[in-house]
Prior knowledge:
The chain is an alpha+beta fold.
Amino acid sequence: MNKYIDRFDDRHFIDNNGCWVWKGTIHSSSGYGQFWEGARTVYAHRWSYELYKDEIPKDLYLDHLCRVRDCINPDHLEPVTHKENLRRGDHRSDATHCMHGHEFTPENTYSPPSQPFYRYCRECRRRRSVEQNIRGRKSSLQR
């Protein structure tokens, strides 16, 4: 790990809030910084925590106390359970509509028992299912 430390430390700057903001690659969907460590890509905040603090217990996730996803300051990271991380997180629990504009009503909202902090739009799920069925039929006709 030592040969990566200098390269790692050159890829962030410290902002006014004390965040170590990652300047390297940012994962397109999660918004977390990524770092190439030899044969694998790792999340920069996890690498930073393990480098400067301690190993992350297997069943825990790192919560960004500062709420800045590309922050790698180990003092801004706390190992917590998945449930606690979701409870604390910004997962659009205050949203009134899904990303496609459908209102979150009791009739149009589904929260799976295994993911009580997530909400899914039933209309979007129906549309996705119809689209998948159409694609499936088209591909079976092309065979």
